[in-house]
């Protein structure tokens, strides 16, 4: 296995391509150190140079868009933060270099963990504001022993910058930390000026990287939850700019500048598929497979399905209409098809709904939801 990994690293390094998954390469592909000589360290140096060329993997842009869509289902605020310098979050994680880095488990892109953002905001608010003034706010933001907080701190994901064949900029940068008092740190003596410096190479996130910072409102939050989210986002933006996040902030690491305004998202209605919609689509698929005449399909649709489908939501009824149009395309049947679909859409009254049904007779218009207009 080790020989296979070494061959993979060397082949991609020669082709000047970074790893397809930077996290896996950083945690599992490290070559063993055979000594301290230049030749012995060459595989190690080549491995770090290979990681230095890591770029956004193919397919991540789709995953990033889907993740953003999920945030729209609950009250959320977000903003984009740009790294002014290098960023080192998760430096205490296990790593072959001795200095860890938080990377997305699935995609291998840099990520600012929600726990790190929450800890940063907690420390910033308690240090900048009077403790008594923000005590209740802190309880709502971060929770107490008796209950959870009202704000969800999502992981801040790397903002996708890949377009087509362009893989975008490199994500990671090679860095170095030089230990000058090795004997003292190892507990073998007092600090002195005779120890040889011991440079430790590791990886950090490149300057210019962008992250989408998102805060959501937890279920059961107070009526003024939206204002709480805005306030938290503004304070978090200040903390990222002035304090920084992660390790080595005293050396200038971890500073992120907000780009643009904080965006407040209105929850989007969630479309839940009705079992009746699936049943109807399966029925149409059966008529297609049996090659049922279009006239017969419309007869059965009017007699057995129209009344049953009216209680569905507007999007569901539109899906039914599209399914009928995809099956019944005969020019001779278009007029009748559209007349029936107009009744399904709610653009006409309810004549004939008291006629036949699969399960029972209907003597009046069926129950309808607020978005139905079949009997208006």
Unreliable spans are 347-376
Query: What would the principal axes of the Cα set say about the shape?
Result: elongated
- Along the chain, the helix and strand elements come as HHHHEEHHEEEHEEHEHHHH
Q: Which structural class best describes the helix and strand composition?
A: alpha+beta
> Largest sheet, if any?
6 strands, antiparallel
Number of strands: 8
Fraction in beta strands: 5-15%
In words, what does this structure look like?
There is one protein chain. With 376 residues, the protein is an alpha+beta fold. It has three domains: 1-54, no CATH class; 59-265, no CATH class; 271-376, no CATH class. It contains twelve helices and eight strands. The strands form two sheets. Strands 1, 2, 3, 4, 7 and 8 form a six-stranded antiparallel β-sheet that branches.
Question: What topology does this entry show?
Answer:
Layout: H1 2-14, H2 22-28, H3 38-52, H4 60-71, E1 76-83, E2 111-112, H5 114-128, H6 135-142, E3 151-153, E4 156-158, E5 172-179, H7 182-185, E6 198-205, E7 210-217, H8 225-242, E8 256-265, H9 275-290, H10 294-309, H11 314-327, H12 334-345
Antiparallel strand pairs: 1-7, 1-8, 2-4, 3-7, 4-7, 5-6
Helix pairs in contact: 1-3, 5-8, 9-10, 9-11, 10-12, 11-12
């Amino acid at each position: 296995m080790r020989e296979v990994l070494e061959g993979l690293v060397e082949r991609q390094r020669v082709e000047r391509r970074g790893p397809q998954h930077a996290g896996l390469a950083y945690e599992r592909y490290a070559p063993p150190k055979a000594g301290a000589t230049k030749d012995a360290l060459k595989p190690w140096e080549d491995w770090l140079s290979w990681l230095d060329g890591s770029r956004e993997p193919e397919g991540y842009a789709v995953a990033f868009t889907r993740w953003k869509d999920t945030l729209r289902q609950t009250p959320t605020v977000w903003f984009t933060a740009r790294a002014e310098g290098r960023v080192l979050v998760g430096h205490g994680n296990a790593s072959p270099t001795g200095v860890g880095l938080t990377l997305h488990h699935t995609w291998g892109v840099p990520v600012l963990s929600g726990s790190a953002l929450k800890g940063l905001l907690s420390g910033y608010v308690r240090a900048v504001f009077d403790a008594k003034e923000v005590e209740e706010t802190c309880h709502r933001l971060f929770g107490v022993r008796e209950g959870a907080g009202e704000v969800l701190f999502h992981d801040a994901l790397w903002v996708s910058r890949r377009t087509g064949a362009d893989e975008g900029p490199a994500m990671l940068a090679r860095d170095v930390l030089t230990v000058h008092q090795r004997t003292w740190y190892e507990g073998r003596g007092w600090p002195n000026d005779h120890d040889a410096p011991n440079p430790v190479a590791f990886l950090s996130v490149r300057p210019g990287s962008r992250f989408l910072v998102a805060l959501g409102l937890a279920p059961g939050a107070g009526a003024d939850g939206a204002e709480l989210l805005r306030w938290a986002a503004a304070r978090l933006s200040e903390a990222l700019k002035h304090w920084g996040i992660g390790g080595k902030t005293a050396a200038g690491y971890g500073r992120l500048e907000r780009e643009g305004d904080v965006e407040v998202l209105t929850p989007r209605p969630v479309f839940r598929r009705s079992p009746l919609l699936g049943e109807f689509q399966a029925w149409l698929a059966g008529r297609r497979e049996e090659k049922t005449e279009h006239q017969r399909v419309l007869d059965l649709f009017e007699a057995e399905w129209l009344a049953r489908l009216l209680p569905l939501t507007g999007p569901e009824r539109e899906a039914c209409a599209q399914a009928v149009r995809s099956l019944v395309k005969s020019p001779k049947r278009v007029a009748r098809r559209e007349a029936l679909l107009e009744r399904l859409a709610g653009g006409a009254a309810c004549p004939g709904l008291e006629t036949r049904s699969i399960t029972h007779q209907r003597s009046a218009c069926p129950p309808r939801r607020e978005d139905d207009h079949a009997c208006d």
